[in-house]
Amino acid sequence: MTDASNTPPVSGVATTSTDGSKKSDKRSPGSSAASLTTVLTLIAICLLATAVRLFSVIKYESVIHEFDPYFNYRVTRYLTEEGFTKTWNFFDSFTWYPLGRIVGGTMYPGLIFTAGLIWKVLQALRSPIHIQEICVFMGPLFSGLCALATFFFMREVRGDGAGLASAAFIAIIPSYISRSVAGSYDLESIAIAALVTVFFLYVKTLNTASLRWATALFFGYLYMVASWGGYSFIVNLLPIHCLASIVLGRVSTGLYVAYAPFAILGALAALNIPVIGFNAVLMSEHFASFAVFGILHAAFAIKWIKETLPPRTYEAAKRVVWTVGTAVAGVILVLVTGYVTASPTFGWTGRSLSLLDPTYASKYIPIIASVSEHQPPAWSSYYNDLHLVTLLAPAGLVAAFTPLTDASLFLVLYAVTAVYFSGVMVRLMLVLAPAAACLAGRGATRQRDGSIKVFDDFREAYSWLSHNVPADAKVASWWDYGYQTTAMANRTVIVDNNTWNNTHIATVGRAMALPEKASSEVFRSLDVEYVFVVFGAFIGRVLGVGRGYPSDDINKFLWMVRIGGGVFPDIKERDYLNRGQYRVDSTAPKAMLDSTMYRLSYYRFAETGPLFGMPYGYDRVRQQTIGLPDFKLKHYEEVFTSEHWMVRVYRVLPEPNREVRLPNPNRVKAQRGAKVKPRRPSGDPTSMPSKTRQ
């Protein structure tokens, strides 16, 4: 999409990009103050995220809630008493009698070891706090860290403003609060913070192509794998993003640095977590990571060959690469297919199959289907669990495409997959919560630098009129804007909101409906020097959402025709309609296409570029492609167009613009009174002298 800054310059308009950011290499004077404000706001959000989860302790007491957390607490207490090594090899004879349980090999140790580490640090600082208190407050503590990670994630996607808004939403979203309240000492209390941190590190590596951030991504993923079984969501989402980037032609060094080390080192990291072990390379839910790893290298190989070889040689080499690659991929596919078909579940775990096939658990694994949080959610659950975010997230999803960067593509894919999985299992509403919060932050009223996006076109236009138009100049527009023009621009108007003189209003309506030459004569007869129109079709391009500004003059034009025709019989409404329909596309009647309102509104509109695959000159308000995309004005001169094209000001020319013709050097100017003989081609009998012809 072409933004407003790429359109031809217009007098009085500052060059501004579509996201509102000024293009400058120097830091603004208020940048330090803005940074301090961002830091203080972020601290306040983190404190809010922690504070809202403490009401269970205030209302009741410092106690662990629910059932599952008590196992985690018991193992954590064992860790503080016996140490790391014994806990890793702990055999619990108090459960599953007479079988018992090998705790170290059947649990995700991240939560327990994190609490134990915090306890160790506090003990070293001579703080005599009991391990139970640490377990109780783990959820609120990591909620603040999750808000921090969300800020940095969305900062990479959009900027500080979206980051702060997203952090504020994740701090108070009900779905996440229910799993991270004080006393909820379960895996999810730290896992969501780890999940968002991994996403931040991945996007940061995408944007910077830095091996340092890729290393941080490895350690972040290792912690996530050690903390929650939901790591499988990451190990499938990242390949989906990588594959989508390849398909969309977004192959880059950042993509390779972010994904290739993760695919291999991430699998090696998962191998070292006993509860996962060799499942990291043997289960089907991990195979996508390795498949996309190979596709990524093939894409880079083709790209390198294309940049190295001449075109004809490249085509031949490309065919060889595709042939060999297809053959190798076919062999691997046959081997993998044979391997997975040997398993009754095709190499998938029961929980994964329950997500891919919502009916699987009820048919084959009743123990999974019997858990209430494994049931599909009701529609009302989305509002109850996400609350205000449900209203803003759809707008953020659309806005993520303007512009579509590698980071925003990842956000879109994260949101779409999370919506699907949350629709299968209500428990996974928790995975959707960060995505919804980030989309809501993207869809809120703010720019990349955190400032509010203000559409100030009317005041901008009135200010231009007051500073650039002579004080005694007369300004014409439709009567709706008369009061504002007089008060804010301090200029004389032809009609205003009083509407006491219908004939005067009809005269302006008639002038807007007439072709250029006739309308300019009407305006000049009223001593009008400037005319402005309100235009709403371009603002939809700037926002990327909605349908522009529908209360513009094109939508009011039929009333101008009707009011003008009520006084002046030469204006007939039927001349501006196509079989009773009001159109602005190629089916619009000639009177409509020739009208001054049409031309002043759509002048240069097609030059602004296409929108989301739509053709040039697509009007988002009318949802039509204009019928007259390329024309020039002869009796009006554009002098000002506001930032979002909502107000367009034209000067009424005293006479039509004329093309300046350069003198013809081959033309011989005849002297006064002399006769110039016409030149005839040689060989023509008529070119011979008259006597010879006789």
TrEMBL record:
Skewed-composition ranges (Basic residues): 669-680
Pathway per its UniProt entry is: Protein modification; protein glycosylation
Gene Ontology cellular-component terms for this entry are:
endomembrane system; membrane
Q: Could you name the domain of life of the organism this protein comes from? A: Eukaryota
Transmembrane residue ranges: 33-55, 102-122, 134-155, 185-203, 223-248, 255-281, 287-305, 320-342, 386-404, 411-437
- Residue ranges for the region (Disordered) are 1-32, 661-694
Entry membrane topology:
Multi-pass membrane protein
Q: What is its EC number?
A: 2.4.99.18
Name of the protein in question: dolichyl-diphosphooligosaccharide--protein glycotransferase
Instruction: Look up and give the organism this protein is from.
Output: Auxenochlorella protothecoides
